[in-house]
Amino acid sequence: MHAPFISDMADKTPQESGARFATRIDISKPGLTREQMYFIRHIEVEQLKKKTQMLRTRNVVTGLAIGAMVVGIYGYTFYSVSQEKIMDEMDEEAKRARLQGPKTGAN
């Protein structure tokens, strides 16, 4: 028994089904009435609206999450820089060293 290839499966047309919900409607078929065409287009438009609304919501949530991360990193950077007192400490050490060091003509 061999495994079916994807290309073998793609070339086959779907089998006819007795179930009403599983039948596909060919919109290029001339036998459709104007009401059926309108209904098909109406359903397609509603599905498109639903998909775009889901994408819009997802995009907004993603944008807010990225913005919150950026603001968090920016705030943390400012907080950590304000806590740094390395330069102040170095200036104070240099000042103390000058005051406590020997007095020479170069000072």
Automatic annotation (TrEMBL):
GO cellular component: mitochondrial inner membrane
All copies of domain Cytochrome c oxidase assembly factor 3 mitochondrial coiled-coil, residue ranges: 48-93
Pfam family, one: Coa3_cc
Annotated membrane topology: Single-pass membrane protein
Keywords for the protein's UniProt record, in alphabetical order: Membrane, Mitochondrion, Mitochondrion inner membrane, Transmembrane, Transmembrane helix
Transmembrane segments: 59-79
Record-level GO BP terms: mitochondrial respiratory chain complex IV assembly
Subcellular location as annotated: Mitochondrion membrane
Coiled-coil regions listed in the entry: none
Top-rank taxon: Eukaryota
Main location: mitochondrion
Region (Disordered), start-end ranges: 1-22
Function: Core component of the MITRAC (mitochondrial translation regulation assembly intermediate of cytochrome c oxidase complex) complex, that regulates cytochrome c oxidase assembly. MITRAC complexes regulate both translation of mitochondrial encoded components and assembly of nuclear-encoded components imported in mitochondrion. Required for efficient translation of MT-CO1 and mitochondrial respiratory chain complex IV assembly. Required for assembly of cytochrome c oxidase (complex IV).
Family: Belongs to the COA3 family.
Assembly and binders: Component of 250-400 kDa complexes called cytochrome oxidase assembly intermediates or COA complexes.
Protein name: Cytochrome c oxidase assembly factor 3
